Amino acid sequence: MAQRTTPAGGEPAPLDPTRLDLTADGAPIMWTVEETAAFLGLTRHTLDVWRSSKAGGPVYVKIAGNRVRYFPADVRDWLIAQRRGS
Fold first, then answer.
1. Which of 5, 20, 55, 57 has its CA 20 to 30 A from that of 48?
2. CATH, domain range 27-86
3. E runs forming strands in the chain
4. What is the pTM of this model?
């Protein structure tokens, strides 16, 4: 079973199903680590380190024990939360 987890180990807010990106057949789109890294302009290694060290990063889902996926809505939410004023 898939489990959404935060890198900090806390419980993520429930994902609003109305915000999910869907495929043509209605299945939710989930990005791989590589796709997420490319979207954020990071390396896969950076995301791997963030997950393993609980140093931050977007909420992710672990499927079948070791496959990591990201919901695009979670990645966008995390990115927006990183904005800082000057």
1. 20
2. 1.10.10
3. 3-5, 60-63, 67-69
4. 0.73
